[in-house]
Design a protein that fits this description.
Shape: elongated
Number of helices: 7
Number of domains: 2
Helix content: 55-70%
Strand content: under 5%
Radius of gyration: 46 Å
Number of strands: 2
Order of helices and strands: HHHHHEEHH
Length: 253
């Protein structure tokens, strides 16, 4: 914007050349042409600068409501418990009473032997089953908690893409691109919350399967040890005495 006044001053300087000896000003036509050209170029540069500024845009004037919603989403803690918390909070009683809305039959509180003796069930042995049930419950909580957030993020991404298609300035494009990157990152984080919750179920179920195999191995070793001990005892009881038999001499009368 300072180019025009400078060009005008230059034109005035070139048009009114130094006075002749008689005191009459001399007009230089070529200087006038140069001055006019200088003004034209200055005006052209000014218009180009205006066009460039309009193309770049003002980042501070661009408002993105989705950014505020994204900040709120980033501040959420989310639902769910860690696997350690689930294991610590699991109880044997819940392990025996869990029926998945009536889908499973729960075990009785006591056991009855073949001889009719009633003995209490070892309830604590069922904690591991409650851990799986609690992991599934946590997965359900996470799925419910993240569903609304996922849909909101997807809607914001859709709106940002539409705005990006209509963007007319560099500042607007860059701001929307940054917003889209942040929205996609948050959507990925929400999906990872679900993956983590699902992995807790898989890990606990795998631990239970591993424990079942370990208990089976322990019972097999106990059985083998018992059979080995019984065989040794039986072998000792049935061992034939091969020592020579001594018959006492008859007594002399």
């Amino acid at each position: 914007m300072k180019l025009i006044p400078s060009a005008v001053l230059l034109a005035g300087f070139l048009v009114w050349m130094p006075l002749s000896a008689q005191g009459i000003p001399v007009i230089d036509a070529s200087a006038i042409v140069q001055a006019i050209e200088a003004v034209r170029l200055a005006t052209q540069q000014l218009e180009q600068s205006k066009t460039e500024l309009e193309r770049l845009g003002d980042p501070g004037a661009i408002k993105t409501p989705a950014a505020n919603q994204l900040l709120q989403s980033l501040g959420l803690i989310g639902a769910g418990r860690t696997l350690v918390e689930i294991q610590m909070e699991s109880t044997g009683t819940n392990g025996t009473t869990f029926n998945a809305n009536g889908l499973y039959r729960t075990p009785t509180e006591v056991l009855q032997t073949a001889g009719g003796t009633v003995v209490p069930r070892a309830v604590e042995e069922y904690r591991k089953y409650d851990a799986v049930a609690q992991s599934v419950k946590t997965l359900e909580d996470v799925m419910y908690d993240t569903e609304e957030r996922r849909q909101s993020l997807r809607t914001q991404i859709q709106q940002a893409l539409k705005s990006l298609q209509k963007a007319t300035t560099v500042a607007e494009v860059q701001k929307l691109q940054g917003l889209l990157s942040a929205l996609n990152a948050e959507l990925g984080a929400v999906d990872r919350e679900r993956d983590t919750a699902l992995s807790r179920v898989v890990v606990q179920a795998t631990l239970n399967q591993t424990d079942a195999a370990r208990q089976q191995q322990a019972r097999r070793e106990e059985t083998e040890a018992s059979v080995r001990q019984a065989t040794e005892k039986l072998g000792t009881a049935l061992k034939v005495d091969t020592s020579p038999i001594r018959i006492p001499s008859p007594a002399v009368r």
